Amino acid sequence: MICRDRSLAFAEAVEKAVNRHRALLREPPEKNSQSVTVPDMAEPAPDAPAGQRRSDRLSDRVRNQQASVHDLLGQGIPLRVIARQFGLARNTVRRLAHAATAHELLVGRWTGGTSILDPYKPYLHQRWSEGLISARRLFEELRERGYEGGESVVKEYVRKLREAFPHDDPPRRNPSVRDVTSWITRHPDRLNDDQAQQLKAVLARCPELEQTAQHIRAFAELMNNRQGRHLDQWIDRVQSDDLPALHSFVNGTCQDFDAVVAGLSLRFSSGAVEGHNNKIKMLKRQMFGVANFDLLRKRVLLAT
Length: 304
Fold this sequence. Notes:
By secondary structure, this protein is mainly alpha-helical. The chain is 65% helix and 0% strand. The protein has 17 helices and no strands. It has helices at residues 2-20, 29-32, 58-74, 79-86, 90-98, 102-111, 121-129, 135-144, 151-164, 177-185, 193-205, 207-224, 231-239, 244-255, 257-265, 271-286, 293-303. The longest helix is centred in the N-terminal third of the chain and has 19 residues, at 2-20. The two termini are 23 Å apart.
C-alpha cells in the first residue's frame, strides 16, 4: 500500500515538474506555421506597380510556371524532363502546357462559369488560406452569410480547390502537460515514433526536464529490477539537482524509507488485496447500497 501511494505521488511530482515548464512544450513558431494561398483576383496593392501582383501569391507562381513550361516546350524538351526540372507532377506540367494563358488556368478551367457561389468565393479563398478545408464547415459559414445554394455546389468547389491548391498537412498539435508527463513516465519502447520525436524535442528545449526524465528512468529501473537497496543513492542524486517537484517526492519517501525500500525489493504486493476490495465496492455500487450482508456475500462468492 505504501508503494502504491508513493507511485501516485511520483506521477504527481512528474506532472508538477512538467507544468513548471509548460511554456517550453510548444514548438517554435517558425516550425509550426503553415499557410496556403489561393489566387487573389482583387486589384494589386496601391504601392505595387500597375498590373503587378505580390510575388508571394500562388497566382504569380502559376503564371511563371506556365510561361516557363511553354518556353521549354518550344525548345523541344519533353514533359517528363520539365516535370523533373521543376519538381512537379507530370499531370500538373501537362495542365500548364495545355493552358493557352495563365488566366485560363487560374480562372476559366478552375472556377468554371457563372455560379451562385461567385459572390462568396473571395470569402472561401480567405478561409481556405486560414486553414479551413472542411466543405461542411465552409457550407455552414456561407449559409450564415446568406448563401442559398446547395451543399453539393460548395463540396464541388472545395474539391477543385484541393486539386488546384493542395493544402499542407495541418500543424501538429502542441503536446499538453499530461502528454509529456505520460511520455516521460512510460517505457520508451511503448512510445510511437511521433511521441518519441516530440518528447526528444521538448527535452532538448528544457534541460531541467531532461534531468527529471533521467531521474525518472533511474527510478523505474529500481522498481522493475527490485533494486530497493539503491534507493538512497537515487535520493542523493535527485537532491543534488535543482528540481523542486522531485525534492517534494523525495521528502515524502524519506518519511517511509524502510517501507518503500521493502516495496522496491520484495516480490510481495498488496495488489491482490486491493483488487478484492475494489471488486466488493463495485458489487455494492451495483446494488445501490441497499442489499444486506447475506446477499452481498452470495454475490461475492458467485463472482469468484
